[in-house]
Amino acid sequence: MSDISVEKVEILKGLNTPCYVIDEQRLVYNGEILKDVAAKSGARILLAQKAFSNYDFYPLLSKYIAGTEASGLYEARLGAEYMPDGENHVFCAAYKDEDFDEVLKYSNHIVFNSVAQLRKFGYKAKLCGKSIGLRINPECSTQEGHAIYDPCSSQSRLGVTRSEFNRQMNDELIGLIDGLHFHTLCEQNADSLEITLQAVEQKYGDILSLDNIRWINMGGGHHITRENYNRDLLIQLIINIKAKYKLDNAYLEPGEAVALNAGYLVTEVLDIVNNGNNKIAIIDASAACHMPDVIEMPYLPPLLGAIAVENQAECGSNEYILAGPTCLAGDSVGKYIFENELHIGDKLIFKDMAIYTTVKNNTFNGMKLPSIYSLGSDMQVNLIKSFDYDDFRERLGK
User: Is the model's pTM score more than 0.90?
Assistant: First the structure.
């Protein structure tokens, strides 16, 4: 899909800042790809709400995907309420006693992270007619440089290793489960899934072959809607695993792929200061508050009309560090080289800001949360949500 149009740029720069803008045209573009993959492979694709929970767009997305995936009670309820005709899968590292009945109310698939949790809650879930899954750890890491997102690291708490499976599971518990779940990828291509599936088959192929195992869930991290993603390989992998083990369903739970490149964060340059050879533009958006993955991942988000400076030795006449207005010294987005010199009052447009932004933002330092807009295919902008002082105050008291 081509980059942002001149008309779209003018519309975005006309908005009050800071603000997020969700691009419906791009959501449809992503949805069409996901729908095609599902049709050709027989997979059922779910929205991982941890990446994108903007439920105003769930009716639109429901035309292309099979339902939602939740990481806990509130996400489960959100999916059930705003995509009610879809499947609603829930995985949690550990369920609380006081939450579990409500989790059952909103879900149709329950995935457990440990044998102890399966033993504790699995029978009740089964009696309520839920499909039961167990998350496994295939102990096959395909990631580089993002240990915090690697569920196969040596310190990971996510999923049951085969040695623990052998030690704790018995025939009764094995008979309780309907499927196996794994999630090992992060923004990766289908070749990483191929490697992971080989490890899954090596360690758990005998379990997949059992008559009671009816589905496999391959989790998220699949960048299916990225331009260079190998969708043909993905489709073939899904077809093969379903046929080999006579499975009814294979599930994918992408979050980023659903809303990849479907959002913008528009911000204004408030001031420009100098520190030695560094020119620093202070903007009214905060990396720490409004795009925390920039610091946590870390990464340099794409910025319209500028080139991110990955190599600190690289420089240009119009090089600026972009930084937020909070008192956190490290509230910095990073270095960019611009086509033109920056001025106070300039509007900047960060791209790919639909994912892991609105779901993770915060009001540290009393920062106002950005308004949220939708941008329709007809180029009409609609305000979905605005925030004020009360949103900051009411988080912390009566």
Answer: yes
